Amino acid sequence: MQQRNSDADLEGDIRRTYAGTPVRVRVSGPLTSGGHSLLLLHGWGSRIEHMWPLAAYFPEDTRIVAVDMPGHGESPPPSEPWGVARHVQLVEELIADLTRGPLVIVGHSNGGRIALTMAASDAPPANLEALVLVAPSGIRRKPTAKVRFKRAVARLLKAPFTLLPGRLGEGGVDWLRHSLVWRMLGSSDYRSLEGVMRATFVQTVNHYVEDVLDRIDMPVLVLRGAADRDVTRDQTDRLVAGLADAGYFEVEGAGHFAQTERPDVVAGAIRKLITAEASPGRAAEASA
To answer: Which of 39, 41, 103, 126 has CB atoms 3.0–4.6 Å from 107's, for a disulfide?
Structure first.
């Protein structure tokens, strides 16, 4: 288990090693503030700065922590491909090291996927009290006609290689996956990546949480920008329906990055959840 550092009360940008890899962490506020702490988790392709605008809407003595995930911002890529489980391990070690008292995780997009996976585990951090998820990923999106077409083409391209024996077939599939044609079938995020980060991306985006939502017993507030084209209302509706204590709030004037486009509204929702009475239906109360 990650040992707590003696200098955990430092503030500003610091360097830490969690889950065996170095990362940049930003810390604000005293370690033992007596109130709630906030942990800000950015999405894929983002960094601390895409979450930190929220910090301006909380008192200076609020403990706020954010991290550049491996391969993002100023954190180097991991030495091998990571799935969601390793990201969860990193976050758990960070929580033990840099937070005390009741904790609210604010996760955007892939940060929401990581937070949901951790909350659904057999032993989530003892001080984790609630989640606030902004355009969270992890719920399957109903495929568009364009996506269905790309999947059909990919199956056709793979079919001949699957008929070849053993390593010959495996080598053919590996060659195909590194070809320009295959890359063009992938998303823009996939096409922009190479090596360990491309493999990490594939493992991460193919991790879904629908089957574990019933294990989450803490309040979860879900926010989505009204103009979000990356996460649909159908996805957030299914997420909220699968949780025991969940609320939904749509952020007008925002797209996929509501926490940077309307940080005042997102911070207000966080404060409302924190101050809501601790009772069943707390997240729904905060979204009203």
So the answer is: 41
Paired sense of beta strands 220-225 and 246-251, if any: parallel
Its pTM stands at 0.83
The pLDDT value given to residue 60: 87
CB count within 10 Å of CB 141 equals 12
Same-domain pairing of 175 and 163 = yes
pLDDT in tens, 120-139: 999 999 999 999 999 999 99
Residue 155 is assigned to a structural domain of this protein: yes
What would the pLDDT profile of 243-276 be if each residue is shown by its tens digit? 999 999 999 999 999 999 999 999 999 999 998 8
Which residues face 108 on adjacent strands? 134
> Domain range holding 271?
12-140+208-287
The widest CA-to-CA distance across the chain, in whole angstroms, is: 64
Residue type at 89 in one-letter notation = Q
* Per-residue confidence (pLDDT) for residue 174, from 0 to 100: 66
By the 10 Å C-beta count (0-12 exposed, 13-18 middle, 19+ buried), 204 is classed as buried
B/e letters for 91-129, b = 16+ CB within 10 Å, e = fewer, are bbbbbbbbbbeebbbbbbbbbbbbbbbbbbeeebbeebb
Helix, strand and coil in the chain, % to nearest 5: 45, 15, 40
Give the per-residue pLDDT at 40. Answer: 98
> CA-to-CA distance for 98 and 37, rounded, in angstroms?
10
Based on the domain organization, do 230 and 188 belong to the same domain? no
> Would you give the DSSP letter of residue 141?
P
**Phi and psi dihedrals of 228, rounded to 5?**
-70, 125
Q: How far apart are CA 249 and CA 121, in angstroms?
A: 26
Q: What is the mean pLDDT of residues 52-73?
A: 95
List the alpha helices (DSSP H) in the chain.
84-98, 110-119, 145-162, 166-177, 180-185, 188-191, 195-205, 233-242, 258-261, 263-275, 282-287
